[in-house]
Amino acid sequence: MQADTPKNGSDRRTIKRKHVAYYTRMFDAKSDVQLGNLGDISLGGVMLISAIPFPPDTTFQLKLELSDDIADKPFMVFEALSLWSHPDLDPELNNTGFRITKIAPEDLEIIRNILQAYSIRDN
Question: Which of 16, 40, 43 is nearest to 97 (CA)?
Answer without folding.
Answer: 40
